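During the reporting period the student researcher (J.K.) took over the structure-prediction task from the postdoctoral fellow and processed the backlog of single-chain submissions. One of the processed entries is reproduced below for the supervisory committee.
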Amino acid sequence: MDSKVQTSTLPPAQPTYIFRGHTSHIHCVQIVRQNSRLLTGDADGWIVLWSLASKRPVAVWQGHDAAILGIAEWGPEKLLSHGRDNSLKVWQLRPADEKHLSNAPPADGLSTHRPQPWLLHSLAVNTLNFCGFSMCPERASSSPAQLKHVSSQEDDAKSVVSDSILVAVPATEDKQVDIFQLPSERRLYTAPRVQPIDTGMIMALKLIHHPQATNLLLLLAGYESGHTAVHLLYTLTTDTPQQAWQTIYLSQPHTQPILSLDASPSLTTYFTSSADAIIAAHRIPEIPNPQTLTNPPEVPRSATLASAPAPVQVAFKINPTKHSGQQSLRVRSDGRILATAGWDGRVRIYSTKSLKEVAVLKWHREGVYGVGFAEVRVGEGHGGVDRVDRADGTMQRLQKQRELQMQAKHWIVAGSKDGKVSMWEVY
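J.K. obtained the following structure tokens:
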């Protein structure tokens, strides 16, 4: 039953707005810039930045010659995009730059000139599969609660205010992951494959800092075989020629390829979805041995893993949902709910605590490929209205009030094969 809540007698939920302007499949959606903008990417390489207040495009350009695999924001002035044209790009797009870019959506045709934002970096990366990139600050916040995840599928993602970031992408060896540093564009690490299991290709990944020790890097990975693993990098000292990786968690809750994964804001749990019907929750292990923090084993960074193969463990929690093909799994910033994009055109929302389905959003008649949450903002009074400058004119105050009210709502957006993006308000 496609109602707002399965046990509710309320009529089915309806989207608040439908964004139209793309002419091909929507692969990526993300709410950015403190909930004031929506970023979308499609199968033809087009990127559109929308104003959530006006519901209109404010910047439109073709960033890639092939499908967009992932998008993310890097602070208030930069955006990242990952395309199947074997490139990962960093664009400078400050709020003041929007007026210099085209606002004509792709549906208006190719005759309109659409300049690109300033291109800061372009990395040649592997895109033989459909796995998008993941990014995190190179230096983590001192508070684990502040280590909010940033993903292209990901994710969700939230802005990272950092001078440098780490970006993970599938390596040319399809079972490995390369990790680059920006802005230097240097490849710092290569996470090796799981041994001795044949996991197949990397399908989804997430790069985070360990909540116990933020100088340690964790790579969450999902594979073609249905396995998922947590790899730990023992040192982030870039002047050391050797680095040590260890697989500290390995599980196979899925019988089909993993399509997406995301971590809770606390970074203690992560979730996976697959081409099968299972949603699984996994505990991120504690550091195996505190002594290894000061004396990590020395293993070449591109070699096999530092330890013996990790035993295959049972996932912390599993929900056999009966709905196969759920992808673009995203966890909301408050950690209470997660959402998936369904091949059947439904957006499903689950409790992160119980993994029970709590809502189904139905509007698209074709498959949904991407979902994204607005950041849950607290402590802003009535929709942030208290922040409006009383010295502004009446029209300016009303416009700012509308913008702040939009930023305070609990939005979820969904991009579909039909080229449209639906926006819903959820609890």
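The committee noted the following: The chain has a mean pLDDT of 86.
J.K. will present the remaining backlog at the next meeting.
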